Amino acid sequence: MNNREKEEYLREYEQLKKKGKPFFPYAIMKDSVMFLVVAAVLITMSLVLGAEMGPKADPTTTTYTPRPEWYFFFLFELLRVLKPPALVPIATVGIPTICMVLLLALPFYDRGAERIPWKRPIATITGILIIIAMAKLTLLGASAGSPSEIELATKPQYEQGKAIVAESGCLACHAIGENGAHGGLGPDLTEIGSKIPRSAIKQSVEIGPGIMPSFRGLGEEDLNAVADYLASLN
Amino acid sequence: MKSPFPSRTKKADQAGNGAAPDENGAVVEEPKPSRKEKLSGHKDLAVHHGGEAGKDVAGWVDSRTNATGIFTAMMSRHVPKGTNWFYTLGSATMFIFAMQAITGVILSMYYTPSATQAYASITHLTNDVFLGEFVRGLHKWGASLMIILIFLHMARTFFFGAYKYPRELNWVIGVVLLILTMVMGLTGYLLPFDQRSFWATIVANNITASGPVVGPYLADFLRAGPDFSATTLSRFYALHMLVVPGLIGGLIGAHLFLVVKLGTTAPPWVRAARPKGAQRSEAVVAGVAVADSDEVSVSSNGVVANGSVEAVAEEADQAKSKTEAPEAAAGPEVTEAESAPEEPEAPEEPEAPADDEETTS
Ligand code: HEM
């Protein structure tokens, strides 16, 4: 916007304001109706959906699902899309940071005088695409359940390790056979035994490389069972 | 929506009429004396009813702060023509933030921010305390609603181009508010200290740690050390109930200050420019009643296409006014009527007699 456009805008706005109505009671009325609607929705949600609690946090247990609140699903899913380890920092911090900076600086690079949505198609279409992308990612995140079952057949001596893996939430990030998160945060573990040695597997589970949490809390015995089971997958 | 304050409307109308038929913009919207009247009114009360200490105090405070004056100015300030339901999203966000503050304070009365007791204190609140689960539910779902509303509000300001001159700074403040609101969601999620929240927070923290340069330090700070510990919880608690809400409250104040100072935008498709001023004053003389634009748009087409419908409706009304008051149908009016309503339902709006921006300005 150059100075002339700015002045023009202010003049036009002055007139529009003159033709407008006093905040009280007109705007206040609408705001109050909106308050009532929001309050009604909120109270209904609270009464119907309640506020249930999961089991107590326990750093040593094996069952959990690392699922964020739904409004972080889109970030979580972004991680899944860009999962190669080299890209993880980009996905986790790089992209959100860039998005935030772009959002913050919006008024400073979009300086055109035009405000009507259909007369500035680039901004409008970009906005709509971003909304669609976020909605899609959120839905994907919501449908990625918390599986706790592995259907892949295994030898009896590895059943214990398989059970621990199944109920430890590994499948929230990893895929094993048909189960788990395909294209999830972590790599597919279906053939992990043929990719890295047992010691490396055990170390991974114990340390929790990258964003994977550490499972040291499982204890030596369970860790060994998990490592045995995963090493048998090939 | 019929005006619940007819007398007030009329007054505003008259004021508008008196100052109206000019284009040089020297109109004072609200008659100045009213504020002084109010002030002197307080004094009178104080003198005549010495027993009413309340009024005295009000007058005392007022004479020092001009609270009434500021309040009146805020209330009687004009919102521009075409302001529609989308403009309620910001104040709805504020409303839900206030709700979060209230329910949050109630929750904090029962909550113990320690790794060993947090879970038990929330279980106790949920199961034993009267209405405990209800208040928790309000706070929990309020968080989700606030996120939804803040995104809707942001979308509104984005698509309306409301971030452009002169409101750039308000957009910047808004983005910071958005980030802080997300931080509230993140820090609050850990507090119940159940399995879900605990492990999700660990993952979130690991995500933070994977960031470049500052990532590991930030994660260490949040965790309060290299390991997830009891201090982590109290750190999140302090952030969640003191630091971040304080920042949000302050920034909302700045945000609203700018909203009042700069005024809210009109929907971008609403135009004021009408070079046929003289002609319209004829319509005033003819005493033609034209429908309240607000009523027309809301009742005829619901919320969505408010502004544009409004413009159409106005032109339609002018067309109608032509038939009702033939002397108003001079030359330029005809051209306006030609470009008039594609939507047939607009002229059929029955609620006619109300104030009209068209005729008064
Ligand atoms: C705690 C969160 C927020 C609160 C309580 C809040 C409140 C408000 C209120 C009450 C208004 C008056 C007009 C309206 O209601 O639409 C407003 C206007 C505005 N807000 Fe917000 N807001 C918040 C967050 C945001 C965010 C996240 C953005 C964008 C990134 C934003 C950008 C704006 C802009 C640009 C305006 C001026 C709009 C205009 O003049 O038409 N706000 N805000």
Question: What's a quick, concise take on this entry?
Answer:
With 234 residues, chain A is mostly helical. Chain A has helices at residues 3-19, 23-49, 73-81, 88-104, 106-109, 121-143, 159-167, 192-195, 198-207, 220-231, and strands spanning 21-22, 175-176, 179-180.
- Large-scale geometry of chain B: globular
Number of strands of chain B: 1
Order of helices and strands of chain B: HHHHEHHHHHHHHHHHH
Largest sheet of chain B: none
The CATH class of the domain at 156-231 in chain A, by name, is Mainly Alpha
Bound molecules: protoporphyrin IX containing FE
CATH H level, superfamily name of the domain at 86-262 in chain B: Cytochrome Bc1 Complex, Chain C
Which structural class do the helices and strands of chain A define?
Answer: mainly alpha
Greatest interface: A-B, 88 and 104 residues
List low-confidence stretches of chain B. 1-30, 276-361
CATH architecture of the domain at 86-262 in chain B: Up-down Bundle
Proportion of residues in β-strands of chain A: under 5%
Q: Kindly state the percentage of residues in helix of chain A.
A: 55-70%
**Mean pLDDT score of chain B:** 72
Q: Can you tell me the CATH architecture of the domain at 156-231 in chain A?
A: Orthogonal Bundle
Structural summary, described in words:
The complex is a heterodimer of chains A (234) and B (361). Chain A is mainly α and 234 residues long. Chain A is built from ten helices and three strands; from the N terminus they run αβααααααββααα. A two-stranded antiparallel ribbon of chain A has the order 2-3. In chain A, helix 7 crosses helix 10. The radius of gyration of chain A is 26 Å and the shape is elongated. With 361 residues, chain B is mainly α. Among the domains of chain B are: 30-76; 86-262, Cytochrome Bc1 Complex, Chain C, CATH 1.20.810.10. Chain B has helices at residues 6-19, 33-48, 53-65, 67-76, 89-108, 118-127, 132-159, 168-190, 195-209, 215-223, 230-262, 277-285, 293-301, 306-324, 331-338, 357-360, and one strand at 78-79. In chain B, helix 8 (168-190) runs antiparallel to helix 11. The structure holds protoporphyrin IX containing FE. Protoporphyrin IX containing FE binds next to helix 5, helix 7, helix 8 and helix 11 of chain B. Residues 87, 89-91, 93-94, 97, 150, 153-154, 157, 162-163, 167, 170-171, 174-175, 177-178, 181, 248, 252, 255-256, 259, 264-265 of chain B line the site of protoporphyrin IX containing FE.
